[in-house]
Amino acid sequence: MHTLQKLLQDCDAIEKVIDLKRKDAARAKAASHRRNAFENRATGCKLHQCRVVIKAGASLDSFIAVSSFDITKANQETTYRCDVHDASGRRELRYVVSSTTGHRKPSETANWAAMALLLPAMLSGKALNIQGSVSALLLHFLRSDLQDLLMHFNSSLKRIDVEADIAPAEGRSCGALRVGTGFSAGIDSFSALRSFRQSGVSACLDVTDLMTFGVGAFGESGGRGTEEAFTKAAARTAAYAQELGVEAHSVRSNLTHFYDRSQGLGFTRTHTLRNASAASLFERELDIYLYASAFAYPELDLTATDYMGHLDPVLLPLLSTTDLRFISAGAGSDRIRKTELLADDTVAQGLLDVCVTPPLKRAAMVGPGRNCSQCWKCYRTMLTLDALGKLERFAAIFDLEYYHQNKAGVLRTLRQRGQKGSKLDKAAVDLYLASPACNHPSAHQMVR
Fold it and tell me: Please, which domain of life does this record's source organism belong to (predicted)?
């Protein structure tokens, strides 16, 4: 009797095991079907081959079609092209990559075009129909959170439909991380570079690639001085990359032709999306892209409409793809702290570039030349360095004689900007007035 009971118990146990295995097999089969369905949508979806079905009855009055994606290599340059069609006709969007690596793994997705054209499409209120493949994660955010955030930032934008095929996820090979960052030689740029290269956590986090993007920072594409300023900046990046033992890349584009400044799409209000679209061209080479933060986390402001940098800590993760992660680098430090950490850097003392003077004049200064020392950003940097007692170390790149002779005007300009809402300028003035450098008996009178 005991033996029979034991046998029945063993049979029950065996049946339970079999039942569990059947359930596991069913779950695995369902997962396989879902995976195959996804792969069938994505497999073979090369950049220039995908075609998204346009809804019946749709016209170019209601959507923007992005098609004919093409990648060509010539003269050590890689050119990405696509056609942008709307009611006004056809225009070509292009990016040209020059790289010390030869850009051996060009992007096979249309992520770059999706990032670049979302804002113009939302401004027009027209659906964006991308006839190419886009990262599933990015497409999700393009249709949801990213539009919510941008509409909060710019009330002129409208919610739109975004259509594209899903790009297949591509696995990374084992090895060290590739970490890229833009290099403008500005305070935020040096800080972003420093944040990983000197993190002390692991050599795997070192920046491996420096970038120069010509998507508006140097002026309008084709404008006077724009190409020369970009070329000199790219050469400066390449020289500094060689000194650091890392790779250098540059991208120039006609993207400025798609961003109308008169409709609120100037560079300062759109720079994150512009630069991210250029960085996404390297999504098969880089693992992480450090986007230099202009503002510290406490300065995150979803109500700000003058400078897109206020949104970066929220905006950049929404631009990440399954292959490339964007990080707001240096957002843990404010501008004064960044300047203080940079003040003892001998490279920065000869290379720091903060000037925002117009492109034609900039072209004569980028590289071994000087900052103009007369724009508001030069003013703020010089005043901060003066307050820190480090200004004389930067005599090679600033006109210190002009600064000392015109300090009253510098203070008044920055104070006025602070009164109009610039927290960075107000902080610089407050720091100076509280510093030993403020030894002029009428210094406080200067800013009244």
Answer: Bacteria
